[in-house]
Design a protein that fits this description.
33% of the residues lie in helices and 21% in strands. By secondary structure, it is α/β, with parallel strands linked by helices. It has a 5-stranded parallel β-sheet with strand order 2-1-3-4-5. Strands 9-8-7-6-10 form a 5-stranded antiparallel β-sheet. A 5-stranded antiparallel β-sheet has the order 12-11-15-14-13, sandwiched between helices. It starts with a strand and ends with a helix.
């Protein structure tokens, strides 16, 4: 009989799931663990067909557990449970993540996910465990700050750094920033290990959103991009010259250089100063935040701009599917009393778009006209 291992640190919820799944005892047996360390002990002692795990746990959390599972049991199907889910990332999780359950969920829903995983794990339709692409998107969804070491046979060691779920920097051989991140995320049969986060502030050298980073990494991989030069002449598996003698990755760059996303802040500040506009951000074609400005500390413009930019990209796909050339403007209307968000092409070019958060009492048409007038002037005076 198949064994299903459920890892959850809340004893009452774990007991509830175990009792509720008793009616399926003729199909699979339920094993339990309260944290990642206990789960690894169970996996070492008994065969497990499906792993169901929470992410936020003491001792070894779900991320640490998945990293170990990826290394030791790469073909084990995984079902992830979490109490926090970002819809923009959840909708882009690759299919190799067997199932994703947002708490609260019913035992029947969990049972259906387990049954589906058991069927798909048959020899004629084997589903591998979680991939690196899925793993980093879970990091984004949970807004986790961490430093990952990624290894693959015959390739340089890679490093990925995330700050509150946002990809900040990467190192791969002699590559850094986005170029390194594309190569690392595209690695096959990758091993994952958590490193101690850097003590110093990390300058952001990755400007694209996590979703676009994964999509671009997949494209680069599919097109067979050339391998990066491996400057490491040491066959012992040590760090390449992209790392310091103290084995700390070179994730700092020029300490006086602005973070990606700061260069255009002065320009965007002029947009945010338009009456009726609470905040603004400027994006490039790929959805990267080039600059943002907000006088409201409660507005996370990075998060708003990235999500709105991805929504615009999706709207453009819809427009093209309908035979139109693309979507040039998008209006996101919120419930009464909340601000409207406008996203539209800037400067008469499809290379840039503006995200504007309006005050609840603002006249959207008036704000739009003033923004467009200002944009025409700004784009005429700035070499973008």
């Amino acid at each position: 009989m198949d064994n299903v291992l459920i890892v959850e640190d809340e004893p009452r919820f774990l007991y509830f799931l175990e009792e509720a799944l008793e009616e399926f005892s003729g199909q699979f047996a339920v094993l339990t663990a309260g944290n990642g360390e206990d789960a690894l002990a169970v996996l070492a002692a008994k065969p497990v067909s499906v792993l169901v795990t929470d992410l936020n746990m003491p001792k070894l959390d779900g991320f640490g557990l998945l990293a170990r599972v990826n290394e030791r049991y790469p073909d084990l199907p995984v079902i992830v449970m979490t109490g926090y889910a970002r819809p923009d990332i959840r909708g882009r999780l690759p299919r190799d993540l067997v199932s994703f359950l947002e708490k609260p969920f019913t035992p029947d829903k969990l049972a259906q996910a387990i049954q589906s995983a058991l069927v798909r794990d048959a020899p004629e339709g084997t589903v591998r465990g979680i991939s690196l692409a899925s793993f980093v998107q879970l990091i984004g969804m949970e807004q986790k700050t961490c430093l990952l070491e990624v290894t693959a046979p015959g390739r340089p060691k890679g490093i990925l750094y995330f700050e509150k779920g946002v990809p900040f920097d990467a190192v791969f051989g002699s590559l850094t920033g986005q170029e390194a991140a594309f190569a690392v995320i595209g690695l096959e049969n990758a091993g994952i290990r958590f490193l101690k986060p850097p003590a110093r502030k990390v300058k952001r050298r990755i400007s694209v959103s996590l979703a676009n980073l994964v999509l671009e990494a997949t494209r680069v991989k599919d097109e067979g991009a050339p391998e990066p030069p491996d400057d490491d002449d040491d066959d012992s598996g040590g760090f390449s010259p992209a790392f310091s003698a103290e084995d700390e990755p070179d994730l700092f760059g020029d300490p006086d250089a602005p973070d990606d996303g700061e260069t255009f802040d002065g320009l965007v500040a002029a947009l945010a100063a338009v009456p009726g506009c609470r905040a603004a951000a400027l994006l490039n074609r790929a959805g990267s935040v080039l600059g943002r400005s907000s006088a409201d500390p409660d507005l996370n413009m990075d998060r708003i701009a990235l999500a709105a930019g991805e929504t615009l990209l999706a709207a453009r796909e819809v427009a093209r599917a309908l035979g139109a050339g693309g979507c040039s403007e998008l209006s996101l209307r919120m419930p009464e009393g909340l601000p409207e968000v406008m996203v539209y092409v800037a400067g008469g070019s499809a290379d840039f778009s503006v995200v504007a958060v309006l005050s609840p009492e603002a006249d959207p048409d008036r704000v739009r006209r003033e923004l467009e007038t200002l944009l025409a002037d700004l784009f005429g005076r700035h070499d973008l």
